[in-house]
Amino acid sequence: MPLPPDTIIGIDLGTTNSCGAIAHGDGQVKLIPYKGGDYTIPSIYAIDDKGHELIGHEAKRQWQLNPRNTLYATKRLIGRAPKDDVVESVQKSVQYRVHAGTQNDVALDCHGRTFHVPEISAKILAKIRDVASDHLGFKVQRAVVTVPAYFTDRQRQAVKEAGTLIDLEVVRIINEPTAAALAYGIGKRLDERVLVYDLGGGTFDVSIIEIRERVFEVKATGGDIFLGGIDFDNAIIEHVLDDFRKKHGIDLSSDPVAMQRIKDLAERTKIDLSARGEAPFSIPFITMTPQGQPLNMDVKFDRKLLEALTQHLVDRTLKIMGAVMVDAGITAKDIDEVMLVGGQTRMPIIQDRLTRFFGKPPSKGVHPDEAVAIGAALYGWSLQESSDLKIQLLDVIPMAIGIEQAGGTMHVVFPRNAAIPNAKTVAATSSVDGQKELVVRIFQGDHPETARNELLGEFTFSGVRPCRAGEVRLEIMFEVNIEGILTMSAKDLDTGRKMQTTVRVASA
Ligand SMILES: Nc1ncnc2c1ncn2[C@@H]1O[C@H](COP(=O)(O)OP(=O)(O)OP(=O)(O)O)[C@@H](O)[C@H]1O
Ligand SMILES: [Mg+2]
Question: Which domain holds residue 432?
Fold first, then answer.
């Protein structure tokens, strides 16, 4: 059956790999294949010496030789302020240059050009859209795009912006673990409580979801958008750099080509060690001695060593998972199925630890690399007019949203795990005589001090009636839509007048 051009595809925009899928008229889902038959493409963008753009596999193939102009793992930087410590730590682990952008955001340099992060996400989305369009025979214009459940409002907005840049209508943003649960649960007439443990390349999410046939209700979510396979690779990299320093007295960390070769092999060694007990870490001619003698890198690696080097990371995921279970008010025995999503969950120790924790092995019900895109495609299909699939998604916000009050403390408007969509009103008043404007600073995060949370923006309500301090009675309405995106409006309660709101991302 030919697909209507209003088709909505599903896109999993991952830190390391991205994937597209489409649901057919009868609700069957197909992954979109790339040249060579792969269903995922590396989320990598590069510009080569000749100034040609490379995206996906082509970009990855040359990244060892062109490390300065190969942008990867940029999802970790999307929607972030430049002063964020995350930005600093990303800069330490990548070979391309990361610096402050002009819009209180992060900018990336590549072959003499400067990009905002959403522009790079847009390149990857465009690649998937183009491959899908070629495959389907019409220009794809609409998509459901997934994001980590633990993304803030600002990060979600940035992903939407990436779609706008290439005229791709991002019809809906949904959370990655929720999408995986859709892939698992649609068409099965379930009545279960599942826990999704999603450890990908860059992010960790955990969601507890109750599935009742086609109703998917998220009870609680949590995560760390700075915890993923890349951190496991970095633990290996640190170890081999240290070993090399001890053996040869040479620090390779400032040599971008050597670092890229080490990075590549670190990931391959890690993956090998999921299937076998030992894997040598050998790179010939990695550098020269001051006397001009070539040096090789040779480190003995086995699974036990990898587990020791990364135990703190696995511990962190279990700690976060425990906190989410407390938030949901449940214990291990209340979980019917544990679903593993994300490539890093193939590490055997992760499966062992979860099996021990829950007293049963995780479900094999979904494919760890494909479930998110499949769920997004199913959801996309359900939003199409021609569809008879109706899905009810009840999701939550991952962190509190609130406003700053005197003394820099957070007045929580929506607590973490508040159901979305949601709306709340907050009373506000003028604090000085004759005040014409009211400025409200909005934050997202669970810390009682706003300075420790993420600044979402500064809203100025202009046209306040000038009167004495405390006399104006304003009602500010906060609405979080089904995508977890916030909008605001204000009303003067005495005149009924709606207040104009302007949003600007504060440059603080
Ligand atoms: N067999 C394996 N054993 C261990 N790790 C693996 C294995 N296969 C893949 N990985 C790791 O999984 C990660 C990629 O997972 P995935 O493709 O699910 O991430 P992503 O969707 O790109 O990232 P995210 O969801 O965090 O944005 C990489 O770090 C990769 O090294
Ligand atoms: Mg993923």
Answer: 397-504
